[in-house]
Structures
1.
Amino acid sequence: MNQALELGAVAPLYKAVKQLLTQELAAGEWRPGEALPSEAKLAERFGVSIGTVRKAIDELVAERMVVRHQGRGTFVASHNTSRQLFHFFHIVPHAGDRQHPRTETLAFRRGRAESGEAARLRVATGEPVFRIRNLLRLEGRAVALDDLVLTQAQFPDLTEKIFTGRANTIYHLYQTRYGINVLRTSERLRATLAGADVAKLLGVRKGAPLLEINRVALTYHDVPVELRRSLVNTEQHEYFSDLGKDEAR
Amino acid sequence: MNQALELGAVAPLYKAVKQLLTQELAAGEWRPGEALPSEAKLAERFGVSIGTVRKAIDELVAERMVVRHQGRGTFVASHNTSRQLFHFFHIVPHAGDRQHPRTETLAFRRGRAESGEAARLRVATGEPVFRIRNLLRLEGRAVALDDLVLTQAQFPDLTEKIFTGRANTIYHLYQTRYGINVLRTSERLRATLAGADVAKLLGVRKGAPLLEINRVALTYHDVPVELRRSLVNTEQHEYFSDLGKDEAR
DNA sequence: AAGTGGTCTAGACCACCAT
DNA sequence: TGGTGGTCTAGACCACTTA
């Protein structure tokens, strides 16, 4: 039976199943929010027991690629649901409840990747990119200024109209229109001082302390999708990081 | 068989097993680094199958309470190993490899918990506490100033001599001497400006931007153990947060 | 009622480690 | 060699969802 999968090495069967499912997911075999075949059908297709399929899917769930619903099925993870929305947005009020930000696009331009950007996006220097500047508001107050860099290759027909006309979050747009599913992020944080231009946009005085967040958003196989530099006014808000919280259900 | 466990509700058996193991771990039934009974013995003791014990331990592993080693056994997680050491230290050089910090204790005092501290430590205002100030250096350079608050109740006989005389990390001391195992942390980050005193200690100019990290360290059942406020000079270093990385093995 | 994922079991065999 | 965790299987039954 194990011959049916052939992963070269003597890797565990469930790893081979996981690998095959990941490849199908990355290839967009099923749309976000769509159901995968049932565990029984997958077991039959791969010629393994249901237990082995379950173990493979367990890991896909842990890595947030899919979501299970008892009685309904297993679904491709989507940036649709409220819980997923929150997952990559780490700015919370110093006091009070979490809010969804309102995003205003200040600039949408085309350009070329500088060497540092190219390295982080794992493309060649000079690669065509989009540069997008957004202002984020929480309860009407300007809280963060985001500068995004995307490769034009990954988002072929993107225009300012499409970007600002999205009905949902930015990552939801990536997912639904370009089949690019942001699965995790890597962030580096620093403290910096507001320059005159940024100060004006965020409504703080020049030289005010700002939190700088440099994010790389990654999709399947840790392929970089987006660079995002955020400058956050932390007078009324904070960045939060709960380590180990996800596992503690 | 299931009667043997009795968890009141109709919770899954493996959750009951997990709960019992967690209680034994929290009670210090086995010392950090010590082996738990084998899965077969636990299955026999609880009157369940090995598969059920494995599922319970799977979750304990995900929550970092225990570590499995094939062929050797399952062990109480310890702050001994290098990997564990790194897990709660998020400051990395802007360029270059991760380093362990050198800690110098600048102050060790006794005091009373203020209302905000008491709330976060979940004790009464005025509760006796320790206040400890540490200076952290990386490659000889002062990088962060840490102010810790611990309850005297949780660390009964702690003295400056014991604290500074520890052979290992601070969390290793909590674990080995007080049986308190830090399992996860919750952190809130802001940008702030260096005051004159802090500036002097960190070797920056007054008004320099600093990263402020407010941490609560938690043990079993999310009981608070330690408050820690860090002020970090991010000229040469950064705070990093890799979301979802733990799951992606 | 039919289909899905969730739990639990029992047993076989493998990979690794200590002795 | 014996003990440990790791993998894989097959099947029974439960809980939940949808129609």
2.
Amino acid sequence: MTGSDYEPDINELDLSDEERDRFADAQRPLWEVIAASLRADILEARYTPGAPLPSETALSTRYSVSRPTVRDAVKALVGEGLVSVVRGRGTFVRAVPDRHAILLGAWPRHDIADAEFIPTAHQWGWTQLAAPHADDDEGRQVYSRSEFNAANRDIATTLGLRTGHTVFHRSSRWRHTTTGLIIGVNSYTVPEIIPVPAPKPNVADAFVHAFTQPSFYDTITSGRGPTTWETTVTARMPYADERELMALSVGSPILIIRRILADKDGRPLEMTEIKADAERIETAYARENHDTYPEGFDPDIHDIEQLADRPDPAPTGRILFLL
Amino acid sequence: MTGSDYEPDINELDLSDEERDRFADAQRPLWEVIAASLRADILEARYTPGAPLPSETALSTRYSVSRPTVRDAVKALVGEGLVSVVRGRGTFVRAVPDRHAILLGAWPRHDIADAEFIPTAHQWGWTQLAAPHADDDEGRQVYSRSEFNAANRDIATTLGLRTGHTVFHRSSRWRHTTTGLIIGVNSYTVPEIIPVPAPKPNVADAFVHAFTQPSFYDTITSGRGPTTWETTVTARMPYADERELMALSVGSPILIIRRILADKDGRPLEMTEIKADAERIETAYARENHDTYPEGFDPDIHDIEQLADRPDPAPTGRILFLL
DNA sequence: CATCATTTGTGCGTATGTATC
DNA sequence: AGATACATACGCACAAATGAT
């Protein structure tokens, strides 16, 4: 591929040696100028999704720069999620996938440990993946990992504990059958509310005393209700291992959805966190506001179907999950 | 910052010359091994927030690699938001700032164009910034830009229009006085519901016919209610210009909060979009679920104060805004 | 099936510029 | 002013993946 089919029509293209000096005078790095030029080409659809960019050597010839400089420009575009690079093939404009929705605030709500949770998840098309780095005593892979950990600053703050305080941590990974989406689910419980023998709790005890109960939610909230839920949403860039485990495309952040369960005094009991590819997932809220409700309308019952049946439900393709 | 679920492989740290060869055999790029080593050092607090990493030359000596290779490793960490690089000074571990909350679903709700909006925003500590690239006829800066645009694919999908359909677009930027946070606010209205003379609407007409009314919301919803709101949250990486305009740190995604106003038949009328630094902002939902409500409790009235007064309101420092 | 040209990935050495202290 | 540190940029070599022959 020579790239000869491309029509450069921007003044910033085709840098001659003299023009190169002019840009150098402008105190703007060459790679940035080139990135801006390519970015404009993509956003203004001179390169359409799926189409290849000219090869790095072709670009370095066109812009009269070295290949490392072109690569710096391409890296910037990769970081913006505009292109993806395939070794041995080339650099391609990314087609942005449709976003699906995780519906927050819907009923029924389940604790991740509850018996109702896994059937519900299956019903919505999710199957559990083997947990990473989690083998049982015979070396077999297990589907979820449960252990007592020291809380890092983030988890501790969320649960109202000091950093380093022990928390009961359960983690699992799920794949959505039709879309292939992978999400990570982590749950952190304040250990004091789990009825395990003091002074040294361990995972086996936790299983016996909590998971064998019909409802982990009932176990930890017993006598502490009425409880409240608070859901927050933010995002950050994934670490290298997260990108691999969740099959994220380079340049895509992860959406972090946290649901905090608090007792009647507002003290946090448990926090459940879902990590999902922000490029393919958005959150929507089920219990939306209305100017007026129709006679006899109960939002708790109706809003899920209403959102799902919307004739043109915005960028969300389909609702994938309730939390 | 989390990292709780990140499992650093201690064996891979502190490469000696011989170890380097071993890793080369392992088919793992040197820069990746070095990045993993430094990442573990940071997440396990061997380098604490604010502390400098060794200089690039020092690192290249320690790991016995060239400086460009060390720089590749550092770039990976920058992309993960773990370190920031200051030219002439060094590379520093980032102190992750507290996240503040934008509260969704709270009353009263205002259209961005309404007279109530600006006082409300001021009351919450926000001041308007000059809109970028927006000058009036005398070359003075203006605070917001209003124009009729062709909708791109994303906006068109959200509003249920075809790509390229004209939309009424208003944009502004705001800075939060005490935190210094900058958010971008964009609003897109389906033009057919704005009472402007056909066939060729223009900005001046829109102002006359819409903004001079006491309530833009009333204008566009008149006869179309009861209306519904739907709020969605997702994230993506910023483009270079967005990073500059919103003073984002490198490696931080932007949180995209969209509020869609629809008529009684579910047809979208208007979409308001807030873009904020995901590293410093999260969303929370005001109308949370409770197992039971206390006698006489009206969530519409109480939930804002309840969230604001929570003894330990999770990672959110303080609520910054209602949407 | 092997071979080959093309394309990106990794890594080195070097030089120069510029910001900071 | 000098030392230090990062930023930009070039050239080169070889490895690895891909797709066509």
